[in-house]
Design brief:
The structure is a homodimer of 180-residue chains. Helices cover 14% and strands 28% of the residues of chain A. Chain A is α+β, with helices and mostly antiparallel strands. In chain A, strand 5 and strand 6 form a beta hairpin. The longest helix of chain A is centred in the middle third of the chain and has 9 residues. At the A-B interface, strand 1, strand 2, helix 1, strand 3 and helix 2 of A face strand 1, strand 2, helix 1, strand 3 and helix 2 of B. Strand 4 of chain A pairs antiparallel with strand 1 of chain B.
Chain lengths: 180, 180
């Protein structure tokens, strides 16, 4: 399969949505059709339109301070690379990390007859990793962004992204593996 | 969506990387690349092709015997109904419940500096709810199926599906709510 190496400027330009569904508007972020969405600092990334429609990479649960349930979604380039087991990820890869508060489900627990079921509550924040090996050469080829209610995180926070990802350099700085 | 008794392994089978799924026929669609896939008993449902490419409804964690992380994916009809807040779900709705073993992530924990991160391990089993209000009139309009390694669960197990879903009749027998 051809190695897709895009050169692109992602700051001001919407991405092509993956799924062939018209008229979808993301609930948790003013993404779709919002060309004026604020770019996150340092890497200059805006919320990719239609990311809520992207395909599933995997899921996770974080205990501790985060206390969330999370889903990783990937655009076409990301999903293709994951399924081919291709590293490094090609330019154009975007991985979205969605997260929600970790909430017990009363309805489910009633049925199970015990307290065991935890589901997604309200959305917390969304993070993106965008691959552009030229533009983001100093951070392993990846740009990082985080948004909450459509608003970007500040510079201090975004400075911490890459240093935490550095330990998984052998997996092209991506922690999440594909869930079959 | 409630899943009860069994934890089973599921072999990853060939996936079709499609951007959209249209025109799915509930009761006779062959599995991806497997036109001879066996139908599950009682409701006669086969594995819908391309379900791994469907969009995310929500995620959950089950403790106890299940001890899994799960993702609910929906076909176009399902996703549209969820986003419109439409009940009952229209005929043609299919909801897939994927699940994986609940596994601590050593790489993640190293970075967080504490044991807190749990990710998807190996696939356990997959379940489907298929809406056809005529064909499945006696079970609230829904047909149920479960597969492990591409093989359907037995009749005894599938008899237990609808009784557990009955308590959420007010939500058209579907436990899972849409994660924004």
């Amino acid at each position: 399969m051809a190695n897709l190496k895009h050169t692109m400027k992602r700051i001001a330009f919407p991405l092509v949505a993956v799924a062939a569904v018209a008229g979808f508007v993301a609930n948790s972020a003013p993404a779709s059709g919002d060309a004026d969405g604020e770019a996150a600092p340092i890497f200059g990334i805006k919320i990719p339109p239609g990311y809520r429609d992207w395909r599933l990479i995997s899921v996770a649960h974080e205990e501790g301070n985060l206390n969330d349930l999370r889903a990783l979604l990937g655009n076409d380039v990301a999903i293709q690379a994951y399924r081919e087991g291709k590293l490094p990820f090609p330019d154009g890869t975007i991985i979205a990390r969605l997260a929600w508060s970790y909430v017990p489900s009363e309805a489910n627990n009633k049925v199970f007859g015990r307290s065991q079921s935890f589901v997604a509550g309200s959305a917390t924040n969304v993070q993106f990793m965008v691959k552009d090996s030229r533009k983001y050469a100093t951070t392993g080829g990846w740009g990082f962004a985080q948004f909450k209610d459509g608003k970007p995180a500040d510079e201090a926070l975004l400075k911490t992204c890459f240093p935490c990802h550095e330990p998984v350099k052998a997996r092209d700085f991506v922690f999440t593996q594909y869930a079959p």
